[in-house]
Amino acid sequence: MKIVMLGAPGAGKGTQADRIAEKFGIPHISTGDIFRANLREGTELGKKAKVYMDRGELVPDDLTCDLLIDRVSKEDCAEGYILDGFPRTIAQAEVLDRALKALNTAVDFAIDVEVPDEDIVTRMSGRRACPKCGATYHVKYMPSKIEDKCDKCGSDLILRDDDKPETVLKRLRVYHDQTQPLIDYYQKKGILHTVDGTKTPEAVFGSILAFLGKESV
Ligand code: AP5
Fold it and tell me: What is the pLDDT confidence band of residue 46, given thresholds at 50, 70 and 90?
């Protein structure tokens, strides 16, 4: 099963992708997480990507597409995967389609998590991320058990640099300009499913499972 997650920054793509990955036993592949891991490790890719991420802009395709196609070619992706944050432009979607077509396969589901812009800035300012393992929380909606400490690895949680309100507004503009056209792209292919991302994480997951064909949350 190959799934693409769509939605504005902070819509809850990563939160839902984690749950789907666990339920179906397939890898959750987030290009944002890959760039952040590279940054932590001090690689050239991480340093280059940071410049764009801090400005709220997309990392150029030449740094993104090969990396993603290489990742989905790994053995753990043989039974499928869930892509979170890729594709983000029509050009990226076409690269993915071409790579899959060469393997006689295609994306099965595109899931659009819909949240209005006015809710996004509030949501992002409350997000806390673990700089070590990448887990995310929300101070109000999904708090960690101990304040500002990661439940999984105990590290101190941080506000991501690109979650500051001015950068979030820029990311939203970039989303509407470059990523939202993908909704039409996947609608035309007949594989788009839209869910209301303003509901609780459990309710959103329930709506997703309903069309993915698994019953219990
Ligand atoms: P990336 O890391 O992919 O960021 P994003 O798409 O902007 O999405 P986020 O991770 O910010 O949010 P999300 O939708 O996953 O929400 P989450 O589940 O965390 O990309 C970062 C940057 O990397 C980009 O700006 C770009 O520069 C670069 N990049 C990445 N991929 C690229 C590509 N393909 N091409 C070019 N550049 C690329 O939830 C958000 C918060 O809300 C959390 O605190 C969560 O706890 C909470 N929450 C989640 N669900 C709910 C709910 N239902 N109700 C209440 N709160 C909720």
Answer: very high
Among 132, 149, 160, 164, the active-site one is 160
pLDDT value at 216 more than 80: no
CB under 8 A, 24+ apart: contacts of 89-96: 89/58, 89/61, 89/178, 89/179, 89/182, 90/181, 90/182, 90/185, 91/61, 92/61, 92/64, 92/65, 92/68, 93/182, 93/185, 93/186, 95/61, 95/65, 95/69, 96/4, 96/68, 96/69
pTM listed for this prediction: 0.93
Active-site choice (2, 36, 123, 171) = 171
Name the residue of 31, 125, 144 to mutate for ligand 1: max ligand atoms within 8 A of Cβ: 31
Q: Which residues, other chains included, contact 74 with Cβ-Cβ below 8 Å and sequence gap of 6+?
A: none
User: Which atom belonging to ligand 1 lies closest to the Cα atom of 199?
Assistant: 53
**Residue 130 CA to ligand 1 centre (angstroms):** 14
Ligand 1 in contact with 134 (CB < 6 A)?
no
Please report which residue ranges of 164-200 form alpha helices under DSSP H: 165-174, 181-188
Percentage with pLDDT > 90 across the chain: 86
